What does this fold into?
Amino acid sequence: MSVDSAEIVDHEKTEELLDHAEENITALILGTVAYLKSKQLPVDGWVSFLGESVAPSWDEVKGQGARDVARLVALNVIASGGDVTSVSGDDSSATLQCSWPDGEDLKHFGLTREDLDPFIQIYQPIAAFLGQSFKAARDGDQTTVTISR
It folds into this structure.
């Protein structure tokens, strides 16, 4: 028996669907990092593999400017429950300031910000695929991402 998605989600109220998606992607990422940590496996290897695997899906922005790429990174941060405080720059260089994940989510999985520091590097192979450079640094809860041509 098939169920019409309109029976599950009222498309006029897609906020509920978006909230569930955000919670699920955050739980998937944090749960994976917590699992890797519990098995004493390196997070950075998983992140590199994932970044290299998804890089070709960014082909639609190949040749576009650094600000366009930073905007897509910002959308990903927001979609996974993060907060973006600014995106600035131009085609040559762009900077994104964000915070992710929420402290309560970290606590739920027994993680620290340091445990999640490697995850932002998922954009390194994506930027390389796009012919751009990527740099990220965290200061407290804030992460600054710089993308340059």
Remarks:
- The chain has a mean pLDDT of 92.
- The first helix runs from residue 5 to 8.
- The chain is about 50% helix and 20% strand.
